[in-house]
Each structure stands twice: as C-alpha cells, then as structure tokens.
C-alpha cells in the first residue's frame, strides 16, 4: 500500500487478516447492491403461484417466461419503448446541443454578465420539480400540450440543461485555451473554432452528456406522470403504475411487476456494460466543484 | 473562475475576445438555454409563489388571499408532520449516504479485486429510476411471505413477520434504506474521485510522524476531503428533501401520513384535491427548504475550495 502516490486511506491496521476482512466487507456491500436486483429478476421468472408462495423461494422452481409476453402485450411495450427512446433521445440531443453552446460561450468567451449568468443558471438547480410542475400542468392544459410528446420534450430539455451545462463545462475547461487561440490567429471564427477544435476534442464528453440525460429522462416519473394520461403517449417508467392484476384483484401481481421492472431496466444495461468508464467520468464531470 | 490565460498573447486575444460582435455571439449562444430555463423553471417558480397567495382551485379562478395559506399551515397537523418527517428523512438519508459512501469509497480503494463486477453493480442502482428502485424494494419488503422476513427468520433473527411498510416507524426507516441503496453508489464514486485527488505525500508524512490510521483519517483525510463532503451533502441534501418517487412507489405516504414528505403532500393537495393555492404554498415551503440546504452547502463548498 505504500510506495504508490495514490492516497489509499484506511482505518484498519496493516496485518495478516486485513485483506481478508476488507474483501469480506466488499462482498457484503456487493451483496447489498445486487440482491434486490437479483430478486426482481428471479421473481419475474416465477409462476404467479410461486410468486406468492410462503415461504418464498430464492431460486424459481419452474423457470418460466410467461410474465414477459403478458407484459409486452398488456403494456403495448414496443409502442411505449419507441415513445421513450424518441422522447429521451430528442430531449437529450437538444439539451446537449443547447447546453454545449452555452458552456462554450461561458468557458471560452468574455462577455458582460458571464459569471452572473452562470451562477444564476446553476442556482436554478435548487428549484424542485414539484414547485414547477403545477404551473406547467395548468399552462399545458390551456395550451393543449397535456399528453403530448412535444410538451414532454420541452420540459425535459429545460429540466436537464443543468446536467448538460455542468458536465460539458468541465470537459471544455480541460481543453487548453492555446488551441482556440491558435485557431483564432489562423483566422478561424468563433463558430469555426467550436466545430473544428472544441467539438472533436470534446466529442466523448458530448456523447456521455447525451447518455446521462437520456438516462435521466428515461427514469423521470414526476413530469412524465403528471403531464401524460393515455397509454399510447406514456413513457416506460410511469407504466410501472399500470401493471394489470389478472385473476384475484386483491393479489398484487408481483411476478408481473417484476417483469415490468426488468423490461424498464434491461434496455439500459448494455449502455452500462459498454461504456462504464466513460459514464463514471461523466458523472464526476457533472459534479464539478464550482 | 478567472479563465484568462497569461503571457504575451493575452492582450491581443483579450482585445479580440472583447469585440462587441463577440459579445453578441456569446449572448446568442447562451440565449436558448437561458430562455428555456426561464420559461420552464424560473417562470413556473414565480407562478407557484404567486398561486400560493391565492385560493385558486379547479372550479374557482381564485382571488388574492394574502398569507392565508401560510397561516393555515400552522394548524394543519398533516403539514406539520410531513415537514418534520421531511427534515428527519433528509438528515438521516443524507448523513447515512455520506458516512457509508465515504467508508465504501475507502474500502473500494483498498480492495482492487473484482473491479469490473464492482463497477457494474455500483452503476445498476444508480441507473435505476427512483420509482423502479422503490418497486424492487417493495417486493423485498412484502410482509407475509416476503423474502426479507423469510431470510431474517431463517437466520433466527425474528419470530413473526416484521411490518416493514405497515408500521409507521418501520415504514419511515424502510423508505430511508431504499433511498440509501439507490444513492450510495453515486456518493461512493464522488468520494473515490476526491480521495484519488489527495496527494499521497501527506499520508506518508503523517505516517512518518507516527500517526495511527485513525488519526491519519481524522487529521489528514477528512480535512483534505472537505470539498467532496460539502458537494455530496449539497447534492444529496437537495435530492432527499424533494423525495417523491420512492414514497409514491413504496408507501404512497402511509401508513396514515407517516411517510408523507412535503413533495408528496404538495402533490396530494395540488393534483389530487386540485387545491392549487394551498398546494402551491406547500411547494413554496419545499422550495425554501431546498434552497436553504443548497445555498448553505454551496457556500461551505465555496469556502472550502479557497
């Protein structure tokens, strides 16, 4: 543990048992993280009667996938998935572009009120969604924007702009200003510099920002729930509230709910596995200490 | 936040960057973001504040009633309870996440085995919607025939079923546990980055001076980590105080009103009962709390960074 310059503080003295104790603690932590998800997945594979069995089982006795086709049908899953991908994708794209332009101006250009604008913008993070959703709902009722994807996209872009601004801000700050100076001396315009210098270097930052916002919209409940009503328009996460209970209406259909959960989580898993490192980098960039 | 470069290029560049057209370009670049934020966040916030001074509801356009809604809060027992619960919930969840997150970050920096598995498992709760996290835990918390009770019974820790969600006190704890599970990974990631940024020489120097691990933690690690700690307290504090989705998924505010947070209560008044005036007043109270938490820790963070 000594010899490296990385700081690895520890509360345990060095000794024979240390690594064992630490590994055990790590395993406990991993179990704590994994177990709820594991149990959701196996519950979705149980038969309806096994999902209720007392005592419950840690491994399904008869693995079956019936809950999935049922939920695909009941939710109109593919339609909802398409809605969600489009709304999240369009919102993330617009938010990333607009946030990127603003972050570029704030990190690169000197103009009056720059610091003030930035501070004000960041300060609006402290405005809870519950404070803004009411007036937005009332305005949308008048404007006939309730239950529309355009209405959702507008709100989501506005809500996620701080993610875009903060994340891209720290990516842009990491690009040396000498590069833009060289470009501007070579006669490149502001816009030209942005597209020729900043954009290519910060491209990984842009894609991570896009994904962070995509995930945030995918997971939103408050706005997506309040501003939509019909199953044809609604997005995935909200539909967790719309799991049908076939048969006995007093029995909560845990196998179906679990299958719904898996159907919401599953499309995001490839993103996690493929660009784990970049996501973590992006998460840290968005938490810039300003 | 001074980002002007030094050296000979400076004056030429500064002149170039101060051209009036350039300022116009800059404003044009910032404008769309500002406009959207103004229209969909700042504007509605002022509307909420305005509504909170009226008695508008679904059928009544409403009129100005002064601070009547705020006066009514003082005698609204549900509001007082939910205010107290929101404060307690926020404090408990934020402190637990911060303390456990720091310990886990230190643990993860010590044990370098299972790196890929650890990263994947950390990102899973992070990537899940709060409502989905609540749903997952609701399945675990099932009282008769739920897996959590079954495991505890198997290990001989309990006799009868634990009322995770139907006993008021336990329900309060259960929703906190769910939030900690969901947010712990993010906190641990932030602290790992913070720890990695501390120069190793300090630790070495303290060791040479004969400081034991606990002393090194207290006198070296913690002070160096102050910015990360305030950052985590700021973001998590603001996040927890607004808790809505977890409650919607787990308890819907119950049993009774035991787990009704201010956000849930504002939702119930505004949307379920369509009492826009009073609902907005509760939302404004939430706004003040969030701004106070965010503002306080932003200020501490600013001071710690200097």
Explain the overall architecture:
The complex is a heterodimer of chains A (290) and B (306). Chain A has helices at 18-44, 48-52, 67-75, 77-108, 114-123, 129-143, 149-173, 177-185, 190-219, 222-226, 254-265, 269-274, 276-286. The mean pLDDT of chain A is 88. Chain A has 290 residues and is mainly α. Chain B has helices spanning 9-17, 20-51, 68-74, 77-110, 115-127, 130-141, 147-154, 168-196, 200-208, 213-224, 226-241, 245-250, 262-272, 276-305. The N and C termini of chain B lie close together (11 Å). Chain B is an all-alpha fold and 306 residues long. Chains A and B meet through helix 1, helix 4, helix 5, helix 6 and helix 7 of A and helix 1, helix 2, helix 4, helix 5 and helix 6 of B.
What is the fold's blueprint, element by element?
The complex is a heterodimer of chains A (290) and B (306).
Chain A: H1 18-44, H2 48-52, H3 67-75, H4 77-108, H5 114-123, H6 129-143, H7 149-173, H8 177-185, H9 190-219, H10 222-226, H11 254-265, H12 269-274, H13 276-286
Chain B: H1 9-17, H2 20-51, H3 68-74, H4 77-110, H5 115-127, H6 130-141, H7 147-154, H8 168-196, H9 200-208, H10 213-224, H11 226-241, H12 245-250, H13 262-272, H14 276-305
How do you describe this structure in short?
The complex is a heterodimer of chains A (290) and B (306). Chain A has 290 residues and is mostly helical.
- Give the fraction of residues assigned to helices of chain B: over 70%
Low-confidence stretches of chain B: 1-8
Looking at the structure, what is the overall shape of chain A? Answer: globular
How many extended strands of chain B?
0
Task: Describe the sheet with the most strands of chain A.
Answer: none
Rg of chain A over CA atoms, rounded to whole Å, is 24 Å
The backbone outline of chain B, from C-alpha atoms, is: globular
* Distance N to C terminus of chain B: 11 Å
Helix-strand pattern of chain A: HHHHHHHHHHHHH
- Radius of gyration of chain B equals 24 Å
- What percentage of residues of chain A falls in helices of 4 or more residues? 55-70%
Name the average pLDDT of chain A: 88
Beta fraction of the residues of chain B?
A: under 5%
Number of strands of chain A: 0
Structural class of chain A: mainly alpha
Number of helices of chain B: 14
* Structure class of chain B: mainly alpha
**Most extensive protein-chain contact, per-chain counts:** A-B, 110 and 125 residues
């Amino acid at each position: 543990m000594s010899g490296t310059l990385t700081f690895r503080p520890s509360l345990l003295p060095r000794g024979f048992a240390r690594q064992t104790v630490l590994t055990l603690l790590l395993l406990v932590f991993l179990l704590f993280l994994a177990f709820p998800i594991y149990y959701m997945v196996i519950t979705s594979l149980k038969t309806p009667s096994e999902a209720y069995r007392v005592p419950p089982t840690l491994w399904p006795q008869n693995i079956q996938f019936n809950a999935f086709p049922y939920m695909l049908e009941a939710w109109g899953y593919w339609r909802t998935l398409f809605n969600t991908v489009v709304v999240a994708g369009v919102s993330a794209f617009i938010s990333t572009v607009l946030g990127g332009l603003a972050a570029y101006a704030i990190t690169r250009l000197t103009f009056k009120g720059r610091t003030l604008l930035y501070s004000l913008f960041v300060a609006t993070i402290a405005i809870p969604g519950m404070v803004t959703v009411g007036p937005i709902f009332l305005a949308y009722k008048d404007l006939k924007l309730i239950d529309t994807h355009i209405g959702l996209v507008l709100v989501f872009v506005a809500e996620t702009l701080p993610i875009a601004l903060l994340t891209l801000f720290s990516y842009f700050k990491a690009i040396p200003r000498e590069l833009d100076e060289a470009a501007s001396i070579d006669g490149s315009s502001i816009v030209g510099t942005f597209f020729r210098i900043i954009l290519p270097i910060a491209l990984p930052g842009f894609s991570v920002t896009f994904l962070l916002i995509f995930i945030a919209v995918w997971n939103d409940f408050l706005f997506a729930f309040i501003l939509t009503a019909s199953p044809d328009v609604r997005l995935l996460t909200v539909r967790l509230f719309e799991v049908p209970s076939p048969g006995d209406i007093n029995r909560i259909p845990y196998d179906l709910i679990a299958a719904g959960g898996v159907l919401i989580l599953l499309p995001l898993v490839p993103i996690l596995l493929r660009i784990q490192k970049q996501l973590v980098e992006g998460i840290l960039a968005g938490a810039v200490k300003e | 936040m001074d980002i002007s470069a030094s050296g000979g290029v400076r004056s030429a560049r500064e002149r170039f960057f101060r051209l009036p057209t350039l300022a116009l370009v800059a404003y044009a670049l910032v404008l769309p973001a500002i406009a959207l934020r103004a229209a969909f966040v700042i504007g509605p916030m002022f509307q909420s504040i305005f509504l909170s001074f009226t008695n508008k509801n679904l059928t009544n356009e409403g009129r100005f009633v002064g601070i009547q809604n705020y006066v009514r809060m003082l005698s609204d027992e549900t509001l007082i309870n939910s205010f107290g619960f929101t404060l307690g919930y926020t404090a408990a969840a934020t402190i637990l996440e911060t303390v456990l997150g720091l310990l886990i970050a230190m643990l993860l920096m010590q044990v370098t085995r299972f790196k890929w598995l650890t990263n994947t498992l950390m990102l899973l709760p992070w990537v899940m919607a709060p409502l989905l996290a609540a749903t997952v835990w609701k399945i675990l918390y099932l009282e008769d025939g739920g897996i959590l009770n079954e495991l505890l019974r198997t290990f001989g820790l309990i006799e009868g079923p634990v009322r995770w969600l139907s006993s008021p006190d336990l329900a309060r704890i259960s929703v906190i546990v769910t939030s900690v599970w969901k947010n712990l990974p993010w906190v641990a990631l932030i602290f790992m980055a913070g720890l990695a940024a501390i120069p190793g020489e300090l630790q070495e120097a303290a060791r040479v001076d004969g400081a034991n691990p606990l002393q090194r933690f207290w006198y070296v690690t913690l002070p160096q980590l102050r910015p990360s700690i305030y950052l985590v307290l700021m973001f998590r504090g603001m996040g927890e105080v607004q808790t809505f989705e977890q409650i919607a998924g787990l308890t819907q505010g119950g049993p009774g009103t035991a787990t009704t947070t201010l956000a849930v209560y504002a939702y119930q008044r505004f949307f379920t009962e369509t009492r826009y005036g009073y609902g907005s007043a509760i939302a404004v109270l939430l706004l003040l709390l969030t701004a106070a938490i965010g503002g306080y820790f932003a200020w501490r963070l600013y001071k710690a960074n200097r």
